[in-house]
Amino acid sequence: MCTLEKRGDLFFLTLTGVGPSDEHRLSPAVIESILSALSDAAAQFTPGCALITTSQGKFFSNGFDLGWAQSAGSVREAEDRLHGMVHSFCPVVAAFLSLPMPTIAAVQGHAAAAGMMLALCHDYMLLRSDRGVLYMPEVDIGLTLPDYFSALGRAKIGSVSALQELFLHGAKVGGEEAVKLGVAWSAHKGEEALMEASINLGEKLAKRKRDGEVFAEIRKSLYPELCAVLGLTHKAIATPKL
User: Fold this and answer.
1) Which GO molecular function annotations are given, in alphabetical order (predicted)?
2) What is the C-alpha separation between 11 and 36, in angstroms, rounded?
3) Contact indicator for 15, 46 with CB cutoff of 8 Å
4) pTM confidence score
């Protein structure tokens, strides 16, 4: 599940679990919890806010809850459960694109499959250099990508070689390599340094006190293909400060 806490100008969305080994799998309940937290953050928005997403324990998120899907009574039911999670996660991506504030993913552990997609939803991704790992295992386990996964990857990863490395080679990419590939903003040694850098960035962004609606519309305009896949539209807003 997750919690949402506001400290000063920063919202902290934290993936929580039962212990340090919790993988923060994106089950239907966890997906709904994240959606609810994003809705609450948007409702509480005032100019001068930013949101940081992080997690407890070893993992950021290891993707969809495949164990729950496979525990169904039949292959057909397992496929239906997986397709249901894929479908229900789509609004999470849309919600991040529409959020009226800057967003930062503080990836302090493994972010795999849909967990990596969750990190990519953010405006900025910071990783631990000593633990953070990005991994798209679909090519290794025999799963194709949902259309919006592919569109999100193309939207947020500008280098063809980086896309190939992550999606076609299934490489496990650490923090410093993710920065070199242009996937991550920065990498930091240890959880404390990661959170300090994330908070500093969040506070710097919050100080700009941007118009939230304008910020969200500009963000959406940067990713027209992804917005089309998600069914999002964006509009022109003219309230210049001259």
Assistant:
1) delta(3)-delta(2)-enoyl-CoA isomerase activity
2) 14
3) no
4) 0.95
